[in-house]
Design goal:
The protein has 385 residues and is mainly beta. The protein has one domain: Kelch-type beta propeller (Neuraminidase). It is 8% helix and 37% strand. The chain starts with a helix and ends with a strand. InterPro entries: Kelch-typ_b-propeller.
Length: 385
């Protein structure tokens, strides 16, 4: 080996060593699945659940909007607007946007550079005997602290009229949504047309457009999460709430299927697996992280109104689910184990680091049934990757 080759080898080794040391400096639990309670500072958002959130990973800013301030029948929609700075663990009140009607479950997303935050659609409380839904789309200018309602055609307003999550693609800045509910009437799931059947996309130039998918789409559903897998350039979704029974709390109303939309071919694919060995039928489950080989899923609730905070890993090669064992949360002062609250409708985001992904969730309700308390804390789950 000549002198030049030896020098290059030494440089590579030193670089690898520095990266390894830096990784462990930035991740105290690199090889552990662990929980941590986050100490929040600043002006905390009001108690709420079923609100909306968007994470600007480039600037490490987490925006939250609205939601419901209680459980049925004492739940009303709010329009509070806050931002959480991950670097300082501090909340800032961006002031309630008076121009936006209070609402829950809006599509909330941001542009690629983090200059704008968008709100679209959403709903009021269920079971009021009237249909309280919205079809407007607003844009928040981060630099000017100003909201502006966007002009939309009647066709685009119809696309925006839904309660669902939207997912922003990091490569293009486009935001996608699938299905979602369009009614707050009692037993809304049985109202004709209450579930959308399409896939839609938003960009700052064209606004909302329909995606012309090839082949079959997943069963129409509500209360499902969308997640972008960058390595596969695909949108994933798991479970949700659908219409398969005359009863709104029948087990078959809750789905337990896994699908992905290839954004290059516009083809939906169902990932088949042994359903007896997976997370089961649930809505409101969230994806934590994914790459070309695996994805991680957390939480959700079932038809018996039971909430979960379990964590699952799906192997995209073998199509098998594995439930993970997570280190319990321990109070750093008393060293007493503290259970993680199993909430529903929490605000959440995921923060990718060099050797781990951190999944944050904040607030939420312990149940959607009357009298259930709301949670005010924030927690962080670390997953080594």
């Amino acid at each position: 080996m000549n002198l030049k080759s030896q020098f290059l080898l030494i440089v590579v080794c030193l670089f690898s060593l520095v990266c390894l040391i830096d990784c462990h400096k930035k991740c105290d639990n690199c090889n552990k699945y662990s929980w941590e309670k986050v100490k929040q500072k600043g002006s905390l958002p009001p108690l709420a659940w079923d609100g909306s959130s968007a994470y600007d990973e480039r600037n490490e800013l987490f925006y939250v909007f609205g939601g419901l301030n209680g459980s049925y029948p004492n739940d009303e929609a709010i329009n509070s607007f806050y931002v959480f700075n991950v670097k300082t663990s501090s909340w800032t009140n961006l002031m309630a946007p008076s121009s936006i009607t209070p609402r829950a479950e809006t599509m909330m997303f941001h542009d690629k550079r983090g200059n704008y935050v968008y709100l679209s659609g959403g709903r009021g409380p269920f079971r009021r005997g009237i249909n309280i839904v919205y079809n407007s789309t607003q844009r928040y200018d981060v630099r000017k602290n100003v909201w502006t309602e966007l002009n939309q055609t009647s066709f685009q307003q119809n696309l925006a009229n839904r309660s669902v999550e939207a997912e922003t693609v990091s490569k293009t800045g486009k935001s996608y949504a699938f299905s979602g509910s369009t009614s707050t009437l009692p037993a809304f799931i049985r109202v004709p047309g209450a579930l959308k059947t399409d896939t839609i996309v938003f960009d700052s130039v064209n606004g909302w457009q329909q995606v012309d998918v090839v082949g079959a789409s997943p069963t129409p559903r509500a209360h499902h999460h969308l997640h972008y897998n960058e390595e596969l350039d695909s949108i994933f979704t798991y479970g949700g709430y659908t219409n398969c029974s005359t009863y709104t709390t029948n087990e078959c109303n809750y789905l337990g299927d896994l699908w992905s939309l290839d954004l290059s071919t516009k083809v939906w694919k169902q990932h088949l697996f042994d359903v007896t060995k997976g997370p089961g039928n649930r809505d409101n489950a969230k994806f934590i992280y994914s790459d070309q080989n695996q994805l991680f899923l957390i939480g959700g609730s079932n038809y018996q109104y039971t909430n979960f905070m379990d964590v699952w890993r799906f192997d995209l090669i073998t199509n098998e689910w594995t439930q993970l064992t997570i280190l319990p949360l321990v109070d750093p002062e008393t060293y007493i184990q503290t259970p993680i609250p199993s909430t529903i409708g929490s605000f959440y985001f995921k923060h990718i680091r060099k050797c781990s992904v951190e999944f944050y969730f904040s607030r939420g309700s312990l149940s959607e049934i009357s009298g259930s308390p709301l949670v005010n804390d924030m927690y962080k789950l670390t997953i080594p990757i």
